[in-house]
Structure formats: C-alpha cells, structure tokens
Design brief:
The structure holds two protein chains of two kinds. Chain A is an alpha+beta fold. Chain A contains 16 helices and twelve strands. Chain A is globular, with a radius of gyration of 21 Å. The model of chain A has no long low-confidence stretch (mean pLDDT 94). The chains are: A alpha+beta, B alpha+beta. At the A-B interface, helix 5 and helix 6 of A face loops of B.
Chain lengths: 415, 63
C-alpha cells in the first residue's frame, strides 16, 4: 500500500485507502473543516472538499483539464508528472472522459438527443409500466433485493430502450454494468473480474450497434443513429468506437441509479414520519423527495482534473501537471451550503447540489435519472407503504460508493 | 447587455427558463429559444441566475 501523506495534526486522507473506500464520511468532515485544500503528495494532487471550491474548479475548464480523463484508479495517478501531459489522440477514440471539446461536445450532441427533457418525458409511461410489471412479480415473494432485482432492472431497461438492446436483456445488462464498475475493496484497483464484465457489457452493446447502425428505419434521434451519422474530422466512427460510447450511456444509466434509489428508500424507511408525508401526495411530493435523495445518496465520490495552465483555486496556486480531485459527495454534505447537511429532509428543496456534477462533464442522463427516480419512488410507496429494508450491502469503492444490495420486506419484515 | 449561448454545448435542459422566463424558452423539440438577446438592465439579476444555473455552463453575458 502506498504511503498517504500525513498532515500536521496526524490526519491522513487517501481516496484509495481501504478505510476511506469503506466509509469516507468521517474523513470528509475533517477535510471540510480543517483541510479544505488537502495535498496528496503521492499523486501530486489537491483535494477540494467544500461546495464553493468544487464549484469554482468547474468554472475553470481551460486551466483545469481532462487530458488525463475524469476518472482514475490508483496506478494511473501514482506517476507524478511535471508540466501538462500530452493531449490524447483520437485514433481510435479514447473513453468519453478523455475526449476534448469541440469533439466531445459534438459527440454528446450526436448521442444525446433522446436524453433531452421532452423526449425523456415521453418515456414515463414505459418506465412506469416496466416498474409495475416488475413489482407484480416481486411483491408476492414477500421480500426482494430492491437494488438488484428492482432498481437495476428498471434503470437498465430504460438504457436498453435507448441503446437498441432487447429489453429482455435488462437484468444481464445491469449485472454486467455493476460488476464492470466494481473495485477491489483493499487495493482500490479494479476488481478481479472487472475486465470480463466490461467485455460482457461491450458485447451486449456491440450486438445492438451492429444490428441497428445501418437500419434505415432507425429513429435518427437515437444514440446509435446519431453516432453512425457523426463524422470525426471527416471520418465515420468504427463499430468499436460507437460501441464504447454507447456502453458509457448504458453503464452510466444502469449502474448509478439503482444505488441511489436503494439508499433513498432506506432513508425513508428510517424516517417513517417523512415517508408518510411523501406518501400523502406522491405525484406532488416525489420530485422534491428525489432531489434530496440525489444530494444525500448520489454515489459518485469524486472526479479528477489535471492542471494545464497555472491557476489559483481557494487560495492555492496550482501548477501544470498537478491534479485536482473534486470531492462531490463531500461537497453535497457541506455545512457552508446546506443547513444540517447530514440530516435527510425530504422537502429540503436545496437551491442546488452537485449530484450530477457541473459544466463540461455534467451528467448527460439528468432528466432520465430524475424521471426514473420519481417513478420508482411513486410505485414502491404506493404499493408497499410500510416496507422495511435489511441486509444492505455498501461495497467499498473509491468512486461509486453506494448500496449494491438491500432486501426490501413487503410486510414490514413480519411476513 | 447581450446574451451569448454556446450552441454547440446547450442541451435544452431548461434550467435557464425557470430562472429567466422573459429571456429564455424551450420548444417541444428540446431546443433553446432566446426570446430577447439584449434584455433590459432590470433583468440582469435573472440572467445571472440563469447563467449560474445552467448545468452545462452554456450561457455567458456580454456587456
């Protein structure tokens, strides 16, 4: 294990240490209060933990850059670099997090038309019908895994629709996405079988791309049609390049939301008074409740930027080649932005939060996530108002720290 | 004061419409419409809120 950097008072934060991956929250409180600009010598990185500072990082796109990607694991940042690293080349295209504007923006536009607000709104009936059909199967069992068997299948089903994947493959698509995102709880590197599942996810996406990309009846607004029509500096994208981009939509949509909905339902179960208030008028109250669930439960812990040109953030001068970690989940619990941040308050109606990031790499699936979250809350609370949840498993991770399994009991656990 | 939109970046999220409905609208194809490119000075605060609320940072203000 690499040595983390001690600071004057003995406090040590390393996002890849087993203790932090298991539960970063106590570290976050200390970071915000005592070390809002925290230097990690082993990665030549500064971690920003307060809401205002994280927000400021996202205002500085030209100086704080993504040429090393927005996500990373430990070995990738254990090489210290002096001076700004080179720009990635596009032959073949790297993962989305490495692609720079203007090509990055062009690709978002090409793939994202069906993730826009009005199109997503037109998906509501389908999302609700799938959620209801699933509950018809699950509720008679008396108890079921609300993350894997409900949230995972509903969320993956929506991205299957958008990516031309047969809806019958929703459960395996979710499983492949979940396992492809898993990390080793001790080393902070990839979990042993992540590559197998990454390839499984790519195979599912590649089949859809090959089947649909030359189909003249394909909706031109769909992600596959948009990417097939896109020209990268004059050349069409290869099947594998389209597949990789489509897989990022599928991964983003299938992997994250189930963790959020599972955790949100746990918070409501722990506060029966609040659950009753939300349930009193579901159509009216679930949008606000889901916003608070996003602030409180969003699993993305942090993203990275690399300094391209000298800049000062929160009084800290940053030099080319150094890295910046934006601790989003920590910022969403910042006392300076949210009163009583560690309390779940369903009708908090916070002015803003960072669950979807901000700026260049803000979440493309924001409207779909909000629709699905709201519909799933409505359907569960309408059908099972007095559920309990046990056996919640929060898998250690440096990145997507959230519940990967939680058993919901239909009759308050007494059935 | 002039409203500048980065059209390659805007994704029709509509956050600006909530903050400054006199300046912005979204059509049913999810495309942003700028109702007034040169809003009067008394709409500056609303325009600044709209720019700050844009999840993609696609709005800027030119004086």
């Amino acid at each position: 294990m690499a040595q983390a950097t001690p600071v004057a008072d003995g406090f040590v934060y390393d996002p890849f240490s087993p203790e932090v991956m298991k539960d970063p929250r106590p570290f976050y409180k200390v970071l915000r209060d005592r070390h809002p600009v925290y230097y990690l010598e082993q990665y030549d990185a500064y971690a920003f933990s307060r809401f205002a500072d994280v927000h400021e990082v996202y205002q500085n796109e030209s100086a704080l850059h993504t040429m090393e990607g927005t996500l990373t694991e430990k070995t990738a940042v254990s090489n210290r670099k002096r001076g700004a690293p080179p720009m990635p080349d596009y032959d073949p295209l790297p993962l989305l997090g490495w692609i720079q504007p203007p090509e990055y923006e062009q690709i978002r536009q090409a793939m994202g038309q069906q993730l826009r607000r009005n199109f997503v709104a037109s998906m509501e009936d389908d999302v609700r019908a799938r959620a209801r059909a699933l509950l018809d199967q699950l509720v008679p069992r008396g108890s079921f895994d609300v993350v894997k068997d409900f949230g995972g299948v509903v969320a993956a089903g929506s991205v299957c629709r958008l990516a031309g994947i047969p809806i019958e493959r929703a459960a395996e698509t979710y499983e492949a996405a979940r396992l492809a995102g898993a990390q080793d709880p001790v080393t902070g590197g990839f979990a042993p079988d992540w590559l197998k599942n990454r390839n499984r996810l790519l195979d599912i996406c590649r089949q859809a791309v090959c089947e649909h990309k030359d189909d003249p009846s394909l909706d031109p607004a769909s992600a596959i049609a948009g990417l097939a029509a896109y020209r990268l500096n004059g050349r069409p994208l290869e099947v594998d390049e389209i597949t990789t981009i489509v897989s990022s939509i599928v991964f983003g949509g299938a992997e994250t939301l189930p963790k959020v909905i599972g955790h949100g339902l746990m918070e409501l179960a722990a506060a029966p008074g609040q659950r009753e208030e939300v349930g009193a008028d579901l159509a009216r109250n679930t949008p606000a409740a889901f916003e608070e669930i996003l602030r409180f439960c969003a699993p993305a812990q942090w993203f990275m930027r690399t300094v391209k040109t000298p800049v000062t953030i929160a009084g800290q001068p940053l030099l080319p080649g150094q890295r910046v970690l934006t601790l989003l989940a920590c910022a969403n619990r910042d006392e300076r932005e949210f009163p009583e941040p560690d309390r779940f308050i369903w009708n908090r109606k916070a002015r803003r939060h960072l669950a979807f990031g901000h700026g260049l790499h803000s979440c493309l699936g924001i409207h779909l996530a909000k629709l699905e979250g709201r519909v799933m809350l409505e359907e569960i609370l309408a059908r099972i108002p007095n559920y309990t949840i046990t056996d919640a498993v929060r898998t250690p991770s440096s990145f997507q720290w959230g519940y990967t399994s939680a058993i919901l009991h239909v009759n308050g656990g007494t059935a | 004061m002039k409203v500048i939109i980065d059209w390659g970046r805007c994704e029709g999220n509509g956050a600006c419409v909530v903050e400054a409905p006199q300046i912005f609208d979204i059509d049913d194809q999810d495309q942003l419409i700028v109702l007034n490119e040169t809003p009067p000075a008394d709409q500056r605060a609303a325009l600044e809120r709209a720019a700050a609320s844009c999840p993609r940072r696609a709005i800027s203000i030119e004086d």
